[in-house]
Amino acid sequence: LQEKALAELAQASTTEETRAWYGEYLGRKGQVTALLSGLGQLPREERPVVGKAANQVKMALEAALQQRQEAIALAEMERALEHEHVDVTVPGRRPVVGKYHPTTAALREIVDIFVQMGFQVYDAREVETDAYNFELLNFPPGHPAREMQDTFFTTNPDVILRTHTSPGQIHAMREYAPEPIRVILPGKCYRNEDVTARSEMMFYQVEGLAIGKNITFSDLKGVLLNFANQMYGEGRRIRFRKSYFPFTEPSVEVDVDCILCGAQGCRMCKYTGWLEILGAGMVHPVVLRNGGYDPAVFSGFAFGMGIERQAILKRGIDDIRYFYENDVRFLERVA
Ligand code: FA5
């Protein structure tokens, strides 16, 4: 029995196999255990001899098992080490570091520049009434200029997603009148537009508003030129173009030369070499009055700029649709 058991044990090469072997010989139903518990049935004089022999077998098998188990454990560990060894010469991996989204980065730069010029940040709401988004800004019902900004409506006929940050002008004026104002109002805007390389359905604007006595168009021009010089560098070409908004008179739009194509013309600048970044003008007397200021005493300027467009122009991004697709490859490349 001992020889047979030892020969079988020598064949076992895994922990599982040694367990099975233990059951066969030494376990509760094992052959050696059966031998020992059967002693009582032997004639009295044979019991000591057989008992001693059976105990020796048991001890020999137990010792052999322990040796075998240790050898197997060692072999298993060596095998594992071979597969899982640590190569200390492999260069470390750089952890991925978070960065600002290009919109956030541009927004921060813009805010810093205007704060230096004495503007404060004013938070206005994203969901507006028709009155604030249009009427108080001198767009009467049915006015054709409403179609310049395709609106997202809600089931409540009066509640809309704001199409621009200009309604914030009325909120700020009504809060501060008759004190002078110098604020910027950053935030999201929504328009039901065809999405293209230069236009999104959701985008950010920063509105600017200054109201006081004796504020002139030269002040507006000075502030915007100063902004453009700081944002894009002194050498960058910018131009003012006459325009129309119901809430400003006179109105202008400002373009920056398109760096994507080196002013040769591309789809971003609609092959003009210029990209429009903002609308601006002197606050219309009707709007001043709606905000609580007497247009005979007060004047002011306002502007509204697209933030993604600024990021596009500074970082050479060639499609606005990348901004909110959440593709980390874009974020890693441009941020
Ligand atoms: C306005 O929204 C006016 N409220 C701006 C204004 C404010 C004029 C105060 C006068 C006084 P406009 O629709 O042109 O104007 O948009 C202003 C800027 O927002 C654009 O120059 C552009 O940079 C950005 N913009 C407009 N629509 C989109 C769009 N769909 N996707 C991305 N940027 C846009």
Description:
There is one protein chain. By secondary structure, this protein is an alpha+beta fold. It has helices spanning 2-11, 15-25, 31-37, 47-84, 102-116, 130-133, 167-176, 217-232, 285-291, 307-315, 328-334; strands at residues 120-121, 127-129, 159-161, 181-190, 202-212, 238-245, 248-257, 274-283, 299-306. It has a seven-stranded mixed beta sheet. Helix 1 (2-11) runs parallel beside helix 4. Adenosine-5'-[phenylalaninyl-phosphate] binds next to strand 5, strand 7, strand 8, strand 9 and helix 10.
Please give the radius of gyration in angstroms: 41 Å
Main sheet strand line-up? 1-4-5-9-8-7-6
The N- and C-terminal alpha carbons lie at a distance of 77 Å
By DSSP, the count of extended strands is: 9
Give helix % range: 40-55%
Structural class category: alpha+beta
Major beta sheet, specifics? 7 strands, mixed
What is the averaged pLDDT score?
A: 92
Uncertain stretches: none
- Kindly estimate the percentage of residues that lie in beta strands according to DSSP: 15-25%
Per the principal axes of the C-alpha atoms, what is the gross shape? rod-shaped
**H/E series:** HHHHHEEHEHEEHEEEHEHH
**Tally of individual helices:** 11
Can you list the ligands bound to this structure? adenosine-5'-[phenylalaninyl-phosphate]
